[in-house]
Amino acid sequence: MRYEFEHVLPADIESRSFAIIEEELTRMGRHLKEDEAPVIMRAIHTTADFDYADNLVFSPDAVRLGREALRAGARIVTDTRMALAGINKKRLEALGGEALCFMGDADVALAAKKRGSTRAAASMEKAARLYGNQAGDEKPLIFAIGNAPTALVSLYELIGKGALAPALIIAAPVGFVNVVPAKEQILSLKNVPYIVARGRKGGSGVAAAICNALLYTI
Amino acid sequence: MRYEFEHVLPADIESRSFAIIEEELTRMGRHLKEDEAPVIMRAIHTTADFDYADNLVFSPDAVRLGREALRAGARIVTDTRMALAGINKKRLEALGGEALCFMGDADVALAAKKRGSTRAAASMEKAARLYGNQAGDEKPLIFAIGNAPTALVSLYELIGKGALAPALIIAAPVGFVNVVPAKEQILSLKNVPYIVARGRKGGSGVAAAICNALLYTI
């Protein structure tokens, strides 16, 4: 048996993939907003799941504000080592930014154990302590959450008590327990830009893809 | 507005998630084979995408053979740093195994450039050179491919010419260009155990989840 391969140069695979995604969206009758299209298409590119054409919810101007934050040398804090691995650090660092994940830190594990919370929640508290409103830090802060709904709950609480004012929250945990309400809480925020993968779907790959979509269109 | 959160202890979130997945599969009338169930359910857990109940194709005894390889201290070679980050190295190393990704290696980049191939293909050739049939290495070799169809094409060729005899191929690249035929080629292999995410879907998270499903059920 022979298999039908397309002859595409390595350097052209990504643009060919995006052309196919665009074709299929058109065939589905989906017309994406110009600013949101690169983000949605990269999430589809990462998952081959066209549900992301419907799932991704953007607060007004989220894409522009996210890009501005990155241009200003944003710190991206994520809740998984996989998302950390997936974010294009070269691009990020060229803009003066950095990507951080505190999930493996001993103090985070200890804090979570002490309080019976999760390491993800303790990670967000550590981010607030280091770079939040009290820290006198001038760099914008982006959260890219790909796994833990408890990270989102923690962010919601920290924002509520004025400890954090993120430049953008990318809310893309995946899962079956408390993922949906944790995302809905983020969607209820009035003064914080967000990109939310509504529903159960998401993941570290999606969170990283959204960061990269913003980085690649600067 | 109030959001409905379930009260689940951090340590119980995963088992509660699996119970929900099982319920929904039952409601869908899907009955998974006993050996395949933990792998399929963990892929769904990682993506919230029930398509994996239909997508994942196992060669006979693939799960048992994969576990045996891991118990014997297998090396897992992957094509992405994200999958590398997602594999539970603690469990793997406790069995005497290790996880490797050559994608960032300078010699791999050079070899790919020289031949106009991809770094993923060159990574597989490096794995064959280091740990293949000519290398006199006794550890079983598992490939966990989450991104590049060219990695699968390269594995197919290396197996064809007798340079490699993997204990298991986890074939889960995601995408739109040559992903489907590259997976079909792996499905045509007669003497190599495989777990293939048939179709376009997959990803680093899925590849890592399949590794972890095997590790967690040893």
Automatic annotation (TrEMBL), chains A, B:
Q: One GO molecular function term?
A: precorrin-8X methylmutase activity
Which terms under GO biological process does the entry name? cobalamin biosynthetic process
| Pathway, per record | Cofactor biosynthesis; adenosylcobalamin biosynthesis
Return the Gene3D superfamilies for the record: Cobalamin biosynthesis CobH/CbiC, precorrin-8X methylmutase (3.40.50.10230)
* Protein keywords: Cobalamin biosynthesis, Isomerase
Q: Which Pfam families match?
A: CbiC (PF02570)
Q: Which residues form the Cobalamin biosynthesis precorrin-8X methylmutase CobH/CbiC domain?
A: 12-216
Family annotation (InterPro entries): Cbl_synth_CobH/CbiC (IPR003722), CobH/CbiC_sf (IPR036588)
Give the similarity note: Belongs to the CobH/CbiC family.
Name of the molecule in the record: Precorrin-8X methylmutase
Naturally occurring in which organism (per UniProt): Candidatus Enterocloster excrementipullorum
